[in-house]
Design goal:
By secondary structure, the protein is an alpha/beta fold. The protein is built from three helices and eight strands. A hairpin with a 5-residue loop joins β2 and β3. The chain starts with 6 loop residues before the first strand and ends with a strand.
Length: about 130
């Protein structure tokens, strides 16, 4: 039986730029950075060191070459955050593209774009 989501694979064009975006703009932490000795490199990031789920940044071109059958599209991710208005303002001040704050039956939500124009959503924690 599956108990939790451990890792989310995010295929990016520029791993270093992606890691910089997530750490400097969103406050994520680099948990680890690994290479396999054959040219493959991955960067594990998470909102905190003790987060149950992390994001693995993979080189999209390398993965496409190694496994052309894989879907390398960006997953639709929903993050949860306390102080949503403060996060919205912080991202705006850090020149992150943010969408309009919307009130849904489940709470407030907005989206933001990373440096490669992939969009993700953030909903207020309850």
């Amino acid at each position: 039986m599956i108990q939790k989501v451990g890792q989310i694979m995010l295929y990016v064009n520029d791993q270093d730029a992606a890691a910089t975006f997530w750490t400097e703009k969103l406050g994520f932490t680099v948990v680890s950075e690994e290479t396999n000795g054959s040219g493959m490199r991955w960067i594990e990031i998470a909102p905190s060191l003790n987060a149950e789920t992390c994001i693995i940044l993979h080189d999209k071109a390398l993965i496409a070459e190694m496994s052309p059958e894989l879907n390398l599209g960006t997953p639709s991710l929903m993050f949860f955050a306390e102080n949503l208005e403060e996060l919205y303002q912080d991202l705006s001040n850090n020149h992150v593209t943010v969408g309009e704050m919307v009130t849904m039956p489940t709470g407030k939500v907005f989206n933001f774009a990373d440096a490669e124009d992939n969009y993700f959503a953030v909903m207020e924690s309850r």
